[in-house]
Amino acid sequence: MEARSSSSAAAAPPPPSIPSSSDQGVWADASPLLAAACRDLQDGELVHGENFSLFAAMSALEIMDPKMDSGIERSRYNSIEEAIEDGVAPIPLSLDRTLDVQRSIDVMDHLFSCEATWHKGHTLAQTVFTCIYLMRMERTSSHAVLNSFCRILRATCNAVISVVSTARTHEEEDLFTMSFGLPLRDEGDEKCLSILNSVEETISRQLRACKAQALSKKKTLEGLESLQDNPDLEEDYCRALLCRLRFRKHFYHVVMCMRKPHGRGLELARKHVASCLTELNLMLKSREFLKSQSSTTLQQGDGNCTTASGCQPVGFDVTLNSRLLSPTPPRAAIRYFERLLHDLDVICASSLDPVLENVLHFIVQFQKTVPDLVPRAFLQTLLVQDGKLYGEHLFSDVISRALSLPDIIGDKEFQMNEFVVQLGQLVVNLIKILCTNTAWQRRKLGKSLQDWSTISIQLELALKREFGETRNVLQNENMCMRVSKQLLIWTQEHAYWVAFRFLTLGFELDLYSPGEYCMVYWYMYVVLTKLIEKMQLRVLASSETSRRKGKKKKDHSKDSARDITFSSSCLLLQCYLLLSEGLSMMLAVLRNESRSFQLPSIFNTEQERFMQHFDLLLKTRVPEHISFYSFEESSSRAGISDLVKYNFFKEIQKIVPSLRGSFASEPEKLAEVRRIEQVAEHNRIALNIINQVGAGEPSLRVSFEFTHHPHFAVAVVKRS
């Protein structure tokens, strides 16, 4: 493209020379050059200087493109005051009281959409604060409904920014917390709840009066001033306003309760979440009434309007803040808030379990729904508070609990140990990483492997230095050595857990092509082998510690070994291992005997692709003695006879009944077992067909689909 554009630019007539400083001006008219470029350049070509590169194009701004040039759509007004003087944001919104209520509801609805858009990672300046009423809140003091709504919205935005800033998850959506000098705080904001409660009570009394009037069949309301002028519409407008105001109140309570330390407000937050969902449902029900009224009060808006009535809201101007950033389209509010509240409810339902394995499992399960930035920030601030788990448990105690060493929980010497302090920080970082979005999570997990690997090596060297040459040790030294060994095993286990998570996230991000599945599943098999090995060693060490404390029995070691062998966690990992090994061998067989799933590329070799995918793991030696040549040698020996002989997929079906019993009270894990069983069954059938027809049969067509599990593919066999 550069070559073509350069030749085209060269063919253009020479541009006029720039006048020197001795001339009347220093500006040159570029119109002839631009006109010549317009005539000669084709689509995709550009005029550029000699030092311009494609890399520079990544950070270039395209002038006159509305998406990149924020100044192209100029506002009709130079300031907010000028817009107000022109009647863009009137107070009251209309002299017709019925129309004033309708327009107030439209403003509320559009602010819901703007708030949802902001939560998705856009800026406050071009979402919530496109509302002039929010920019000049003091003007709304005479309009109780609008003033109370805007005040509590602003207070909620401020609280959410505080949570996201504390969690530092906004690095992925770095515009989220930027306020651009907008009026986010005011002296009266601490009274926002009492102000809204007062307005809510007034409208509630009005609604009760409407119901009483309907029963008594009176034509007028006695002792109360109506919201608007049409008595027949009073009740419906009261309901429409109340559900919106109450949602704002309950959502504010949700945010404030979830910010309480040590998870003390979670139970109350769940009640407010339920109330929010109820009000959202009432907001949906009010749509029909509001749409029916808009045709008689205002012209119908376009199909993309964000209000229940279908009318464009007054009091908004997206171009006033265009110097800060370009406008962003508003999101569907109710659908977003329903999902947000569901995610927050899941967090509030957390058992605050201090067992690290359960904490990591909870985060991974939570991330399967792909939550947005705000719920992930709330989850992180709940888990890590003041450097402690839930703000209560020191991470040194969390580690000692994971090592099954209750005696050293609270032990000052253990807490101050250099390695324990470093491991505690690694666990904190791991929890924070798992709370980021999928792409950032994978990237940071890969980089964190270096830290896990380094401390593992340091622990191993320290263990050899302290105890390597000593055989006869005293009891207290023996305890020290035992703790050091368990700490090393635990560290190595978590390094492999991080590696496994890193590999599986690649499937969620669609980073692997079908031609690379073989190497990915092979690497997963190798990592899982080491992970299971370290997990069993840890459980064995924990059982040995427990045995020494209790009475010594001859068969206790056999019982411990049996417990390890049939540990449900190990069995689940064993299923993953068998799936990985089976899929890797099946793909290798197809590569060897039918030459399928081989993608020769002019850009890179298979070895280069291996390095690109696993470089972070190879650099940290996770696991050791693994290279591309190990994979090449292993896959080249794969044959259909060996695959049928070992039948990894059938082995999984033997383990599944035991897992069903172990996870009978855990629906999420039970669902995972069902998914694994389906993948194993479909692949077992596919393997039988491939064996009967012959892997080298030219008419055989095999593809892989992720229909039952996000990480483990199912072979689909067809004959052409």
Q: Would you kindly provide a brief summary of this structure?
A:
By secondary structure, the chain is mostly helical. It contains 26 helices and 5 strands.
- Low-pLDDT windows of residues: 1-13, 15-23, 296-303, 470-477, 551-566
* Beta fraction: under 5%
Oligomerization category of the chains in this entry: single chain
Portion of residues within helices = 55-70%
| C-alpha end-to-end distance | 41 Å
What is the tally of helical segments?
A: 26
Rg (CA only): 33 Å
Shape field: globular
What summary fits the major beta sheet? 3 strands, antiparallel
The total domain count is 2
Mean pLDDT: 85
Describe the strand arrangement of the main beta sheet, using strand numbers. Answer: 1-2-3
Number of strands: 5
Structure classification: mainly alpha
GO cellular component, one term: NatC complex
Keywords: Cytoplasm
Region (Disordered): 1-25
InterPro entries: NAA35-like_N, Naa35_N, TPR_NAA35
Task: Summarize this structure as a short list of keywords or feature phrases.
single chain, 720 residues, mainly alpha, 2 domains, 3-stranded antiparallel beta sheet, two-stranded antiparallel sheet, disordered N terminus, cytoplasm
Overview of the structural elements:
This is N-alpha-acetyltransferase 35, NatC auxiliary subunit. Residues 1-11 have a biased composition (Low complexity). Residues 44-187 form the NAA35-like N-terminal domain. Residues 347-715 form the NAA35-like TPR repeats domain. The chain is built from 26 helices and 5 strands. It starts with a helix and ends with a strand. With 720 residues, it is mainly alpha-helical. Helix 9 (234-258) runs antiparallel to helix 10 (266-297), helix 10 runs antiparallel to helix 11 and helix 25 runs antiparallel to helix 26 (667-693). The strands form 2 sheets. A 3-stranded antiparallel β-sheet has the order 1-2-3. A two-stranded antiparallel sheet has the order 4-5.
